[in-house]
Automatic annotation (TrEMBL):
The keyword Nucleotide-binding applies. Belongs to the protein kinase superfamily. This is Protein kinase domain-containing protein. InterPro entries: CDPK_Ser/Thr_kinases, Kinase-like_dom_sf, Prot_kinase_dom, Protein_kinase_ATP_BS, Ser/Thr_kinase_AS. It comes from Aegilops tauschii subsp. strangulata. Residues 114-376 form the Protein kinase domain. Residues 1-56 are annotated as: Disordered. Pfam families: Pkinase. ATP binds at residue 146. The lineage of its organism: Eukaryota, Viridiplantae, Streptophyta, Embryophyta, Tracheophyta. Keywords: ATP-binding, Kinase, Nucleotide-binding, Repeat, Serine/threonine-protein kinase, Transferase. GO terms for molecular function: ATP binding; protein serine/threonine kinase activity. CDD domains: STKc_CAMK (cd05117).
Amino acid sequence: SGSTTPVHQTPGVAWPSPYPAGGTSPLPAGVSPSPARSTPRRFFKRPFPPPSPAKHIKATLAKRLGGGKPKEGPIPEEGAVAAGAGAGAVADGAEAERPLDKTFGFGKNFGAKYELGKEVGRGHFGHTCSAVVKKGEYKGQTVAVKIISKAKMTTAISIEDVRREVKILKALSGHNNLVKFYDACEDALNVYIVMELCEGGELLDRILARGGRYTEEDAKAIVVQILSVVAFCHLQGVVHRDLKPENFLFTTRDENAPMKLIDFGLSDFIRPDERLNDIVGSAYYVAPEVLHRSYSMEADIWSIGVITYILLCGSRPFWARTESGIFRSVLRADPNLDDSPWPSVSAEAKDFVKRFLNKDYRKRMTAVQALTHPWLRDDQRQIPLDILVYRLIKQYLRATPLKRLALKALSKALKDDELLYLRLQFDLLEPRDGVVSLDNFRTV
């Protein structure tokens, strides 16, 4: 899957608190992708099929595939969506008048390096197969190969999506909870993205196997891994935009196997002060500000909140029989934290979920802040640098003397949790005599 090229906006936003409180998956051989309506309903209070895109997301997909403009249903922001679709139609018409460049500069020797195995997944743009490396550093290793047909790249947008996905995979190497990227190749017919093969199945499968609910301790182990990898992505300037249980795979069938985040087909690079306005993602996990067409990294935090809610109670926080109904629920409804099993869930866990599913994105925690929340706090865990610190320092340096004095006064009213988070961030920068050098900041 892919995303539209976003139009970046930088509207004025309120000065944030230092601690605001209050496309096919590389599936393992033998594991089939979850069909849209295969989830047993008896496991959940509400049926829990993997989410289908909303109607305007389908419209975007149709443009990428070069199809006709589909009918659009009554959804939130309908006027804005219709306007966007019209603009897209004009752009597509312009694209049709000139030939598309479908060369990517990737290696041309895929057949010499890899022996393709059987198909393990299929999506809108292509399919995923297992393969064995025939030569080189990884000789003999089994990998996943995402095969994207060039024939289906009928617009400049779809071509740029593939370029960006590979660029992001290359930029994000090095985290234990990220699927490893090995190679990208192409020939006249296809693009081949070679990645780590995860043989433990989707997080969604494990949720279902547990009858739809995790214990708090087991949920914590999952959420910590999600937060860690998302914090890493955000620090590298990448917003995923499609976080959901289907996009987390376990490396093996072992109960304690680590998870890997996959599928960066909807992801994009973003600067800390930018806002995106294209509506992408999966309906049940999309944040309110995405529907309002002005969002940033906080949209990923909302999606993590939805996943956490599902882990703890086995049902979705926002549900309706239609996609437009799901959007109305996301925009207007509050998650139910009263019915069973929520009375038996700890106050810390409920507070955690509330902070993530706050409709005001400015009041959500960042991924790093969440790792210091009382529900997850672990003094032995290494806390990564938060992209928020970079943003706040940048804003402080640009602030007027009066604003700096006001911030200094406000800092004296910080709570213990807020001070702990800031102290951990400060220590990461290895200060000398209470001062952090620019070199230290760059190194971290």
